[in-house]
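Lest this sound abstract, we think one record worth quoting, the chain in one-letter code, the fold tokenised, each line plainly labelled:

>
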Amino acid sequence: MSREKVLGLGGVFVRAKNAEALRKWYLRHLGLDITEWGGAVLQNDAPETYWSVFEEKSDYMPRRQMTMLNWRVANLDRMLDQLRAADIKVEDHVEESDQGRFGWAYDMEGNKFELWEPPQ
């Protein structure tokens, strides 16, 4: 008998001090179309979504933060410039690898998130 396995990312859930304000922040700055139930449905034509576990002592994300969102973008430089123009905290470095280009920024509650431009 074959075992069941997950097919992809079903959702991402974020705890917030001010949920309504954080929803509006993501709508304004990342363009998420927030629905009447308070979330967004993302249509994804990409072939894969990644999931990873980091060691507790990893510095990849702030230690107080238990999760980090990775948002796929078409043009990382334009997205980072857009966020900087809105006075959003954006990390200065961009990482490039065979997996694509990565940048990082922080939402209004200080949650670090990753922006990923897949390779062409």
Notes: The CA atoms of residues 7 and 48 lie 10 Å apart. The longest strand covers residues 100-106. The two ends are 39 Å apart (CA to CA). The chain has a mean pLDDT of 90.
